[in-house]
Amino acid sequence: MSDFDINNLQQRMQGALDNLNKDLSGLRTGRASPDLLNSIAVDAYGSKMPINQVGNINVPEPRMLSVQVWDANLAGPTEKAIRESGLGLNPALEGNVIRIPLPELTEERRKDLTKVAGSNAENARIAVRNVRRDGMDALKKQEKDGDIGKDEMHTKSDEVQKLTDEFVSKIDELLKTKTEEIMQV
Predict the structure, then answer these.
(1) What region, left, alpha or beta, does residue 90 occupy, with left being phi > 0 and alpha being psi -120 to 50 degrees?
(2) Which CATH architecture has domain 6-23+106-184?
(3) Residues 71-97: pLDDT tens digits?
(4) Which of 69, 144, 146, 154 is most buried (CB neighbours < 10 A)?
(5) How far is CA 115 from CA 4, 42, 129, 181, 183, in A?
(6) Which of 10, 6, 17, 3 is nearest to 172 (CA)?
(7) Residue 48 CA to chain centroid, in angstroms?
(8) Rounded to an integer, what distance in angstroms lies between the CA atom of residue 167 and that of residue 121?
(9) Chain centroid to CA 6: how far?
């Protein structure tokens, strides 16, 4: 990115926030939701694929999810990905179908979910900071190339920092809300 574009930076930061929103929506606390599995990637055909690209996710019962895997060869890797996802799930493989009973929300389970939410929020903060770094690098290049002066460089740097602080604050607020939701259920 050689040209500085504050709108592009804002869109990319918004993308990080949207991804966090999607990840946190998957941390359903009471009822089963297919969104719970959105963050899981399966080792398939030599690469990582989102779980919804290897099978259908269904909610047969309020406290049960199932994944109907399309390719029998991917049933094992899919089950392994669910088990190792950090979501505290214990899937059971039955042919091409993986049944995932959702555990009761004990105090310990809630704390685990808040850790997952915190980890998702930290990943979003890192993404926002990476966008900030790209913006600052573009500004430094423009200044070095003589396209902008020191004053404009300083003004635009402040804009980028303000935007970064705004998005980090939104991430923190989203995390706080989700943590309260998890702990009060």
Answers:
(1) beta
(2) Orthogonal Bundle (1.10)
(3) 888 989 999 999 888 777 889 999 889
(4) 69
(5) 36, 22, 21, 13, 12
(6) 17
(7) 15
(8) 11
(9) 23
